[in-house]
Amino acid sequence: MNATLHKTAAYVALVAGLAACYWVNSAWALLIGIVIGLAQLNPVPQFTKPLSTKLLQASVIGLGAGMNLAVLIRVGASGVLYTIVGIALAFALGIFLGRRAKVPRDITLLITGGTAICGGSAIAAIAGVIRPKSEDATVALATVFLLNAAALFIFPALGHFFKLDPQAFGLWSALAIHDTSSVVGAAGNYDPESLPVATTVKLTRALWIAPLSLVIGWAVSRNRNKDAAATRRRPPIPWFIFGFIAAAAVVTWIPPLADAGREVAAFARRLLVLTLFLIGANLTPAALRAVGVRPLVLGVTLWFAVSALTLLAINFGWIR
């Protein structure tokens, strides 16, 4: 009993430390959590699993407070057609590849959503809607963060190889790299003039988190109800997605709250770091063996296809 208490106390201390250390980003938090989980050092999985779901939803709501809907809608209106087409093609390709590779549906949706929209944030929102197994969310996040790290080195090198101008590279990185942080890093390393284009396009793309999460949640709930022969059952309402939209709307419509909104968003990013640690700590060796390497193959294949098609479209002038 004392050993369990000591183990739990040490675990709580580690969680608190991760929440307080600003140098620990999402990828590191997830990695540390995975190590804890695979070493079977999580003393309270029955508590961390439901808690991680609630914290994930709260994080998504808080991230909305850092967005200015008016600016993003105005900037995104000019490229709304190719955004819709690009996201639709990415989802169609991701679902096709997932089925061919026999990757579980929830992992396929999470990896595809992260690739099509904006990495970890999109995965967090979709996971909050479809309620996947903890190990499915962990594997999807790990796959996306691994590719994000690779993109920081690969994309600038490819940009120079293909002799992309700064604006074209900024657009390409925003459409083909998963997370905003990696987009900013790759664009900044390539050329300072790439950064404004990359940042604006990526943040505009983040607006699609809400509607796509709603659609995916509705579709998954509908299929689950059919499988359970309970078609009369109403699908759960993802209130946190509406909270995300409401938070963004409040700071947009009430300008004096913009500074407070940025503080809320900063707190939400730290909360997301903590949540990703908890998600990683829920991963067990048995669950990892059950998932296998197919999700990683799916993520790499889909990322390569989206990157290549996007670069081709930019070179031909189909995307400006």
Structure description:
This protein is mostly helical. The chain has helices spanning 2-20, 26-38, 45-64, 69-77, 80-100, 105-116, 119-130, 134-161, 166-176, 180-190, 194-205, 209-227, 239-253, 258-281, 285-291, 294-315. Helix 9 packs antiparallel against helix 16 (294-315).
Summarize the structure.
By secondary structure, the protein is mainly α. About 80% of the residues lie in helices and about 0% in strands.
Task: Name the quaternary structure.
Answer: single chain
Unreliable stretches (pLDDT < 50, length at least 5) are 228-235
Rg: 20 Å
Give the fraction of residues assigned to helices. Answer: over 70%
Proportion of strand residues: under 5%
Q: What is the count of DSSP helices, taking H or I runs of 4+ residues?
A: 16
Calculate the mean pLDDT score and round it.
79
Global structural class: mainly alpha
Largest sheet: none
Furnish the topology, listing elements before pairings.
Blueprint (H helix, E strand, L loop, with lengths): L1 H19 L5 H13 L6 H20 L4 H9 L2 H21 L4 H12 L2 H12 L3 H28 L4 H11 L3 H11 L3 H12 L3 H19 L11 H15 L4 H24 L3 H7 L2 H22 L5
Helix pairs in contact: 1-14, 2-8, 2-14, 3-7, 3-13, 3-14, 4-11, 5-6, 5-16, 6-7, 6-8, 6-16, 7-8, 7-12, 8-10, 8-16, 9-10, 9-11, 9-16, 10-11, 12-13, 13-14
What descriptive keywords fit this protein?
single chain; 320 residues; 0% strand; globular
